[in-house]
Amino acid sequence: MKYAYFPGCSLKGLGRAYEESLLPVMERLGVELVELDDWNCCGATAYMSVDERKACILAARNLAIAEKTGTYDLVTPCSACYLVLNKTKHYLADSPEINASVQRALGAAGLRYGGNTLVRHPLDILVNDVGLDVIREKVVRPLKGLKVAPYYGCQVVRPYATFDDAWNPTTMDRLLTTLGAEVVPYPLKTKCCGGSLTGTLPETGLRLTYILLKEAVRRGADVIATICPLCQFNLDAYHDQLTRQWGPVPIPTVYFTQLMGLAFGLPESQLGLNRNFVRMKPLPALPAKA
Amino acid sequence: MIQVPRTVKYEAERVKGFGREIMSTPGCEQLVRCIQCGTCSGTCPLSVYMEHSPRQIMALVRADFKDEVLRSRSIWLCASCYACTVECPREIRITDIMYALKQRAILEEIYPKRFPIPILAKEFFKMVHSKGRITETLLVMRLFLKANWRAVLSSWRQGIGLIRTGRFVLRHERIEHREQLARMLDSDLHDAPPTTRKEAA
Fold it and tell me: Looking at the whole model, is its pTM more than 0.90?
């Protein structure tokens, strides 16, 4: 299976552990990810706040480059990228006016976008293309006894996702169960983490982050599994401030791909787990095989 | 005595046509159908921090209270989680309306001054325009310098943590074809058809 791959800025920066775990896991499953040539920033929420047309052009350049490769399925692990690229696709399809303006801009650089690129999330690929049965076969070290709170965040499930529910998604739940982990009920799974407000207005953003962590602790989870680099950063990197304000909520937050890597028996050092502020406890040693 | 924190609005504050302009933005058309049920405000994780809840913003836009809306902090507090958009029984894309309002506030330069959220948006915009990609740590440092340098003091431990975990990037990420991207983004400036006033014609 071959897909075009759009990492996005975070996976080369704060969220590099996501890419570090995603690539070997996909490789283990025989999924080939080909990084898009000279991709640019999707624009995220900030760019769209300044200029809508330019935001569409920015995102459309990536869609056009992907289309040119002939591999129409574009994998985007970051929630913001997934949303913005999908949103742009919808805008271009729904508004002839925006489409004409964007095509003109693309044309200025010799590009064209015919509407064929499909924006897809790794979760979608893993569960619907690869399949849980194939994943189960690759598990050499079941995550038995590990209690995981599955946290999806907002922008993958709302409003453009086609593969899961907007409020109670279950794709990752099923994936984690396949790995042998125990999924704890986590009703906040699609609540906002605060996004960039943790940096711009900490007094608002951090409270949202705290609520998510506290709930996971109360539910008895050992670890939170996330699918978004900004969620991971918010839930992981502000424990100092959170502890000072409301008391400790000591729970690690890792990417679901890191948990997959562990279950596949990939060495911890190669999954970026050492990049966490709050480290995950090492899994108990495997019983020696006869 | 009971204090009611409510401002009186005067007819003279209305900018006739503002609501219609916003509602003619692609994606914002459904605002005309709003029944003021308040589902958006109830769903919004940030409405408690807003001086006008999302429901009030919708009403103010429709009633042409342009200044009050565009100068508010409320529209900037929207973190784009799309909870309201998915929940709205009238299928109004509230998040997209918030975007249209933010864009308008930036265009007219009437966003709240020294408020970090629009500052971040503008810095983000500039960095993408010149490099094609975002280097998060450099972006945050620029934000701190422009908006709140004291924040550096309270987050130095986080910075050290990022260095320790190898996530503090100081070298700019950039794309190869920066002039191509700039040409595309700037071509738009001259080609963009007018988005407003169409209804009036």
Answer: yes
